Amino acid sequence: MTMTSSRPYIARALYDWILENDCTPYILVDAARNGVEVPREYVKDGQIVLNISPAAVRAMHMGNDVITFDGRFGGEALTIVVPVEALMAIYARENGQGMVFEVEPFAEVEEEVSPHFELEAVSDPEPQPQEAPAAKDEETEKPPRKPGGRPHLKVVK
Question: Are strands 47-51 and 76-83 parallel, antiparallel or unpaired?
Answer without folding.
Answer: unpaired
